[in-house]
UniProtKB/TrEMBL annotation, chains A, B:
One of its GO terms (cellular component) is cytosol. SUPFAM superfamilies: DAK1/DegV-like. PROSITE patterns: DHAK (PS51481). It comes from Agromyces protaetiae. One of its GO terms (biological process) is glycerol catabolic process. Residues 7-330 form the DhaK domain. The gene is dhaK. Its EC number is 2.7.1.121. GO terms for molecular function: ATP binding; glycerone kinase activity; phosphoenolpyruvate-glycerone phosphotransferase activity. Coiled coil: none annotated. It comes from the Bacteria. Keywords: ATP-binding, Kinase, Nucleotide-binding, Transferase. This is Dihydroxyacetone kinase subunit DhaK.
Amino acid sequence: MKKFVNDPKQFVPEMLKGLALANPDTLKYVPEYNLIGRASGPSDDKVSIIQGSGSGHEPAHVMAVGKGMLDAACPGDVFSAPPMDYVYETTKLWNSAKGVLLLVNNYTGDRMAFDMAQEMSLADGVNVKTLFIDDDVAVQDSTWTVGRRGVAGNFFVIKAVGAAAEEGASLEELVRIGEKVNSVTRTMGLALTACTPPAKGEPLFDLGDDEIEIGVGIHGEPGRRRAKIVPSDELVDILLEPVVADLPFQSGDRVALMINGLGGTPISELYVAYGHAHEQLAAQGIEVVKSYVGEYCTSLDMAGASLTLVRLDDEIERLLDAPAEIGYRVF
Amino acid sequence: MKKFVNDPKQFVPEMLKGLALANPDTLKYVPEYNLIGRASGPSDDKVSIIQGSGSGHEPAHVMAVGKGMLDAACPGDVFSAPPMDYVYETTKLWNSAKGVLLLVNNYTGDRMAFDMAQEMSLADGVNVKTLFIDDDVAVQDSTWTVGRRGVAGNFFVIKAVGAAAEEGASLEELVRIGEKVNSVTRTMGLALTACTPPAKGEPLFDLGDDEIEIGVGIHGEPGRRRAKIVPSDELVDILLEPVVADLPFQSGDRVALMINGLGGTPISELYVAYGHAHEQLAAQGIEVVKSYVGEYCTSLDMAGASLTLVRLDDEIERLLDAPAEIGYRVF
């Protein structure tokens, strides 16, 4: 394993420490709960939005903390759900008179942790609701999931409810908006290589020199099938067709299109993929009006990408257009 | 080779097409010259700032086109200097009454193309000056360079002169600012893996399963030495010590610190590296007041990172703080 890793057990705390050191004005780090929150703390004028998940998907979710996005994130170890008490303590620390919204990608371990934390928080008098995200069309159930997995489409839920929360929307309203965005968001990904978790020290699964995993999960879970590598346009078609067919997206739709890198694929390749997806959609009468190309939800150093479509309406488009700050400096 | 690539000869044009399709409101694409420029075109109220280089370093430089940054970029093929006529035509198209500033990373091929383009543009009556960037402390001369190489520190020159240009600074003033920033910027990088250029289809050089290349160039050029992989803190020290010693940076200095991913290293690892670098600098009395963690200048899919320090003064800090827009959507 060749990585910027010291003791693998310290990988997540060291990453979070680095993130906090790089952003002293905007982020607060509470090591006991792997908690990254806004330095400003909670406000009774807005619902607090919290996401937890396994680590290894950065920038999701610790780097999505900022104005117009999350209020706090409490990740677990690499590819492990956060312990229930991380979620519980984070919920209490970010309690607001307007309530707390917990966002959870649909994995069994995450659901258990968040369900328990919600119950305990409710017993403590916190007004808390939970919203599950399950945008991955690849498989119905999988290694770590009953029902569909939550993957990169999660970004759009965060962005939309984050924007609405800044405007003062109620907890019930945020749940409505989040459920709506999730209901019109579809994703599928493919792996060109496996990823190497620091604690394992070797690739999580075997993939031949000319093989790809179609419909891969963000923890390296198997997808729909293995195939031989093909040119980029065909790779994109392999992702686009099931995504379009699932909702289905139709001629006349206005959409957001995301090409999300899984960690080891450079942005140059993501733009090659984007161009073809955009043109294929245009040929079907589906208009891309918002585009997102880069890394949003990764799988450590996995090479590969996922493709997400969101069907826009006026409300969703307005919320995606709203200003947002992120917990890490870009330019 | 497993990549999002169709015909390798079309890799760069397809990337640029994707970039333009994703940003129709802000970017203009002129295929004849690999030109990505601001959709608004040149303005006689500001100096036009143009950078060209080989491709394969994205987001540098085509994705650094935007308000407060570059006016246009005209890359060559992967790891190849732009043809002289790309630079010449771009200079003419972005001509401004206030002049044109060409930014060039110090590589022999790039210098030749830009020197000739500058001469021809001057003959056409364009008021054009060129600024060379050579921030890499790793080697004095190298495979493609006489003198030091220009690498990720280039970002700070773009950001500073970009901000000053928006304020209406003269061409002479921009040259002064750019030279000053370059003179206080130092970088060194290391490779954990080789990169794979699309046209070659296999890794550019051989690196053992436990080997790293210290002081690597962004085209995979050899650096100072090969070594065995060591823990992250030691990797950071290997980069930090020569960078600090070179200027030298000293106790009492205020600095910007960049940990730049080379393409295949995920941002989680970059933050692990950042945390140690920040703390080591603090221990030496060097205060990090601005931080940059992510991908700024890559080498295709190479795993690895570079570390850049910039010694700040009030002018540089103010220019780095100025607002900027980039040619690709983040959030």
